[in-house]
Design brief:
It is built from four helices and seven strands; from the N terminus they run βααβββαβαββ. With 174 residues, the chain is an alpha+beta fold. It has a single domain, classed as Aminopeptidase (3-Layer(aba) Sandwich), CATH 3.40.630. The chain is globular, with a radius of gyration of 15 Å. It comes from Lacticaseibacillus zeae subsp. silagei. This is Acetyltransferase.
């Protein structure tokens, strides 16, 4: 049985976080998905995530195996949404730069990671969680919808291919 948990990222994690990003970038590129095929996310973005306390890592058997940034809204990229739109105008947490190391792919650890993220969001008082991904990234879409997120429309990033499918889940207790 593996030991798996999520914690805040530290500066010591940055090399491992960059390794995970390189693995995810290669995986996306091998599938001809243009997401992350430029320089983003770069080390400066990851260093900023750590410095501001929004970076999280998934640790599997003592090794950093995933990363995410938990951004308190309002997220400027989520102000414009084409489609049904967000469910409610409430405080929310946005998940960005979500990635898992290729060595653990296929072990359902995205579910574990998202479950930890959802628990932290709820514990921090957020009942609304948002995330986006490229339209061709069906594996991420499967992970997102498998955790209860619903497609809400299209949002726009600053990357060369800016359109992203946007998803939202409401965390309720009853």
């Amino acid at each position: 049985m593996s030991t798996i948990f999520m914690r805040a990222a530290t500066t010591n994690d940055i090399p491992d976080m960059m390794r995970v990003i390189a693995s995810a970038r290669k995986f996306l590129g091998d599938q001809d998905i243009p997401q992350w095929q430029g320089t983003y996310p770069d080390q400066a973005a990851i260093e900023q995530d750590v410095a501001t306390g929004i970076g999280r890592v998934l640790v599997v058997d003592g090794k950093v195996a995933g990363l995410a940034a938990l951004v308190v809204g309002p997220d400027p990229h989520y102000l414009r949404i084409d489609g049904e739109g967000w469910l409610a105008d409430v405080p929310y947490l946005a998940v960005h730069r979500f990635a898992l190391d290729g060595s653990i792919r296929g072990k359902q650890l995205s579910r574990v990671f998202f479950s930890n993220i959802m628990s932290e969001a709820y514990r921090r008082g957020f009942t609304d969680l948002r995330v986006d991904t490229h339209a061709q990234n069906v594996i991420m879409q499967h992970a997102i919808t498998g955790m209860g997120f619903d497609f809400r429309g299209i949002v726009y990033m600053d990357e060369p291919v800016p359109e992203r499918n946007a998803y939202e889940v409401r965390l309720t207790t009853g």
